[in-house]
Design goal:
223 residues, Nucleotidyltransferase, domain 5
Length: 223
C-alpha cells in the first residue's frame, strides 16, 4: 500500500497543533485560570473571615474553553475574626448551622491547592490565576488566608495577576454587573440564588468561557 510521506507529516503536524490547543498553557501565557467565588463575613480581608469558597477549573476542547471540575467548601471562621451581621444578612449564611459541614481554612486550602497543582502540571502551566467577578476582592482574601495558615510556599496562585470578569465584561459587553453581563450573553441567571459561592462561581465560569470563546469567534485569537 502506497503511503504519501509528505501528506502523513502534514497530518501529524496538524494533530500536534490541535493537542497544543487543548493545553491552557498556550492560551494564557503559561497561566492556569481558576474561577473562584468567596463569601465572607465582611469586606476587610485582614479582619473578616472566609465563610464559603467555590472554584471551577477549566479545560480546552479543540481550542474552545469549557468548565471542568468544581470544588466547594463551607469554612469555619478563623479565631478572632470579625463577623458582620450585615454581611451575613446579605449572603444568607448561618455560621452556627451544623448543616453547613464547615471545615477549617487549612484543610480546605490543602485540598484546593493539591487539585490546582495537579492541573497546573497537566496543562504545562507555571502559575494559577484567580478568575472572579471583581477579582481583587476574592484574591485579597485568598492571599490573607494563605498568610494566616502559613502556606505561602505552597500557594499556586499568582501574587498579583487576576482575570476580572467585571472588567472584561465592561470592555466586550458594556456591562459590569454579573447578572447583566450574563443576560447579555443569554446565560440564565437566577437572582434569588445569587451571593451563594456555588451559584456565583458557576455563572462566572460560564461567563468567562463565553467571553473568551466570543473573542476567538471575532478573530481575536490566535492573534
Amino acid at each position: 500500500m502506497y503511503i504519501n510521506i509528505k501528506f502523513l507529516k502534514i497530518i501529524l503536524k496538524l494533530m500536534k497543533n490541535l493537542s497544543k490547543l487543548d493545553l491552557l498553557h498556550y492560551r494564557f501565557r503559561g497561566l492556569y485560570p481558576v474561577v473562584i467565588d468567596i463569601e465572607t463575613s465582611g469586606f476587610n480581608s485582614h479582619r473578616h473571615a472566609i465563610l464559603e469558597i467555590s472554584l471551577i477549573t477549566l479545560k480546552m476542547t479543540n481550542g474552545w474553553l469549557e468548565k471542568n471540575e468544581m470544588l466547594h467548601f463551607h469554612i469555619i471562621p478563623f479565631k478572632g475574626s470579625c463577623i458582620s451581621s450585615e454581611a451575613l444578612a446579605f449572603n444568607g449564611i448561618n455560621i452556627n448551622s451544623l448543616l453547613r459541614g464547615a471545615i477549617s481554612e487549612n484543610k480546605a486550602f490543602k485540598i484546593i491547592f493539591k487539585k490546582i497543582f495537579a492541573d497546573i502540571q497537566k496543562n504545562k502551566c507555571k502559575k494559577a490565576v484567580v478568575v472572579a467577578h471583581n477579582a481583587n476582592f476574592d484574591h485579597s482574601f485568598i492571599m490573607e488566608a494563605v498568610k494566616r495558615i502559613k502556606m505561602e510556599k505552597n500557594n499556586p496562585f499568582h501574587s498579583f495577576v487576576t482575570f476580572d470578569t467585571a472588567s472584561i465584561s465592561g470592555l466586550i459587553l458594556g456591562q459590569t454587573v454579573l447578572a447583566k453581563a450574563c443576560y447579555a450573553l443569554n446565560i440564565p441567571f437566577d437572582c434569588t440564588q445569587a451571593h451563594s459561592a456555588l451559584y456565583d462561581t458557576n455563572r462566572t465560569a460560564e461567563l468567562f468561557c463565553k467571553l473568551v470563546n466570543k473573542w476567538k469567534k471575532l478573530g481575536g485569537w490566535p492573534p
